[in-house]
Amino acid sequence: MPELKNIKHIIRLAFPIILANASAPLLGLADTATIGQTGHAAELGAISLAGLVFSFVYWGFGFLRMGTTGFIAQAQGRADRSEVLAVLFRSVILGLGIGVLLVLLQYFIGNLALWLLSASEEVKSLVADYFYIRIYGAPATLITYSILGGLIGLGYTRQLMYVQFLLNGLNIALNVLFVVGLDMGVKGIALGTLIAEWVALFYGAYILAKKLELEQPIYQLKKLWQQIIDKAKVIGMFKVNGDIMIRTFALLGGFAWFANEGAKFGDSILAANHVLLQFVSISAFFLDGFANVVEMYAGKAIGLGDRDLFNQRIKETTWVSGVSASLLGLLIIIFAPTAVSLLTQDTDVQIIAQDHAVYAGVYIILSFVAFQLDGVFIGATRSKEMRNATIVSLLILIGIGTLTTRYYGNIGLWIAFISFVIVRGVGLGYYLPKITKRLFWKTEG
User: Fold this and answer.
1) Phi/psi of residue 370, each to 5°?
2) Domain residue limits at 106
3) Total domain count for the chain?
4) Which of 204, 229, 254 is the last residue of a domain?
5) What's the pLDDT tens digit per position in 171-219?
């Protein structure tokens, strides 16, 4: 067990991230409640599907946050201020470029998304209204990913929370104003989100610039330009980001496969699995917070070239994460009847969800290993191993699931899903000693 002061420090760093993560679902609830006061079923369906489109697009570029964290934490560990700034500028330029490209390709993306959606023409028309307004927030959102990655890498997790709270709080307020006050419907939801995204960007940039004492960003950009476009570092960034992108889609593929297979067993099982996944998502708020802390810890230890500190930080954060996961999983198992009844009034769904709650609890308890090791590998900028472990776990999920669902139905599906997270953790654990040796061979040679 780590020292109490270290546990407190880990929790102090992770808690703002946990609160920031938890604020995101409140936005979705507020959007639903707001449009529900003035709209109808088509508008409710439209904001759900439109939000799904943007979630899928933005998830794919999550590497802007994760990749930035690892590189900045390592530069911070080396006390290399110029490289911290160069990494940040490099990531912001990439986020801006991708965001502008998404805006330029908006009609292609929008038409493709509408073609893929199985919805009525009325709903599709409303989705288009939402999409063609909010898409202009793409540059702001992707640059903000880079800024959040910088804040985590530098250990400024409280400031990250402030940015997220502003983003989601302002979004909610504007949605109420535009939808309830001005009766703008779905377009009001999109406009409120668009404005909040740009305001959050400027606020996040202000906070990060203040923390870095960056008074003349344009001057610093020009001064560091050759370092920013250094060929080896740019190639390294693209390799890391490409691997993280593949890993992210493999992870999304696993959850999509799970949902699709559950749908084959009927609406009640599909709904029950969805309810249980909400508990898994809530646990992820906590575990992701601890994973973000180990990203920063691992990156700084690597920058310092201190293998003992690297191992110590991994053990400390993993202990805290493991205890948290165990408590969360046990709470779900013990209080499943009450928790499930809060999310659904359908008796059949309640019974199925309660019968399968133990599997969701086991998944949560075992998932902390994958979360923590993801954090270690992000901090170490060792994305290839993350990519490989996730692809292998996806293949095993589909392979095992194809067999277990045939003989054990939905229980077999959950067994395969648990295998999915176990294999991810085991795969990363297999790579850990090898990458540790490679990372520190110079300091031990």
Assistant:
1) -65, -40
2) 1-229
3) 2
4) 229
5) 889 988 998 888 788 888 889 989 999 999 999 999 999 999 888 888 8
